[in-house]
Amino acid sequence: MPLTPTKKIWMDGALVDWENATTHVLSHTLHYGMGAFEGIRAYKTPQGVAVFRLREHMERLLRSCKILMIEVPYTLDQLCDAVVDTVRVNEMNDGCYIRPLVYLGYGEMGVNPMGAPTNVVIGVWPWGAYLGADSLDQGVRMKISSWARHHPNSMPTASKTVGGYVNSCLAKLEAVKAGYDEAIMLGTDGLISECTGENLFIVRDGLIVSPPPSGAGALRGITQSSIVKIANDLGYPVSFEAMRRDDLYLADEAFLTGTAAEVVPIDSVDDRVVGAGKPGPITMDIQSTYFQAVRGARPAYESWLTKV
């Protein structure tokens, strides 16, 4: 999905013109992938634009950096304030996508990153439905990828690591080139892990089930945790269980969740229609409540919103 330039990008404490927000081609992260990032959304609400679960996202960013042994020169509060400032200065009154990135810059080469400076940037831009305009209503076609998700002893799966997403890119390319919308990735044990950038849920006999993030090598999702809370509030039990691919084939409903994708029904997996072949009632109930929550129409979830 192409980028739409906005006015300013926050770079190491300063708001820089979009076209001048550049880094050196010999920056360490460009060559070795050592860095961490987040994806966050802000939504238009009746009280103005608000960022969804900002603090939780920035906490995860700092946790990722701790795992990678990257010292971040800003506090949690400073990073949250920087996001709010960047959304505000770019006048993103209808909402936007937000990309904080911590990367190692110019000054050191080789796989030992010690000595490379730490840089922090925050960009914002308008971004529609990540998996396509029709995905939210009609669902998406999924393919089990031939690429396995990282083993947690090969790549720290609890960190949203820059270089780790080569794994996701390969799976996404394979799926799209084969005519599907998105890929589902198995762990090295052959069990369901997650999608290329989303967590996964199925509905079976009225119960909602998701793979256990730590056990499946998946990133623990902030949207995922939001959906668990919403589902429980709506009276739908949620459990975390190991899942095989045939659990997806035989599910009554299935959906994926993520900041970029939001809440998207799954139409089919490996050309097997899921359930009745249309978005199921539990999926749509949860999706509807989620969109009300992020847009400030559900007072019970107002604490998730940081007003700009």
| Largest β sheet strand count, sense and barrel closure | 9 strands, mixed
Order of SSEs: EEHEEEHHEEHEHEEEEHHEHEEEHE
Helix-and-strand structural type:
alpha+beta
Query: What do the pLDDT scores average to?
Result: 96
CATH homolog superfamily of the largest domain:
D-amino Acid Aminotransferase, subunit A, domain 2
N/C terminus separation: 26 Å
- From the 3D coordinates, which CATH architecture of the largest domain would you assign? Alpha-Beta Barrel
**Strand segment tally:** 17
- Poorly predicted regions are none
Based on CA atoms alone, the radius of gyration comes out at 19 Å
Helix content: 25-40%
Q: Proportion of β residues?
A: 25-35%
Number of helices: 9
Query: Quick one: CATH class of the largest domain?
Result: Alpha Beta
Q: Name the shape in a single word.
A: globular
What features would you describe in this structure?
- This protein has 2 domains: 8-125, D-amino Acid Aminotransferase, Chain A, domain 1 (2-Layer Sandwich), CATH 3.30.470.10; 135-294, D-amino Acid Aminotransferase, subunit A, domain 2 (D-amino Acid Aminotransferase, Chain A, domain 2, Alpha-Beta Barrel).
- It has 308 residues and is of the alpha+beta class.
- A hairpin with a 2-residue loop joins strand 15 and strand 16 (272-273).
- The protein has helices at residues 28-32, 54-67, 76-89, 135-138, 166-177, 213-216, 222-233, 245-249, 281-294, and strands at 8-11, 14-17, 35-37, 40-45, 48-52, 95-104, 118-125, 140-144, 182-186, 192-195, 199-204, 207-210, 238-240, 253-258, 262-269, 272-273, 305-307.
- Helix 2 crosses helix 3.
- The strands form 2 sheets. Strands 8, 9, 10, 11, 12, 13, 14, 15 and 16 form a 9-stranded mixed beta sheet that branches. Strands 1, 2, 3, 4, 5, 6, 7 and 17 form an 8-stranded antiparallel beta sheet that branches.
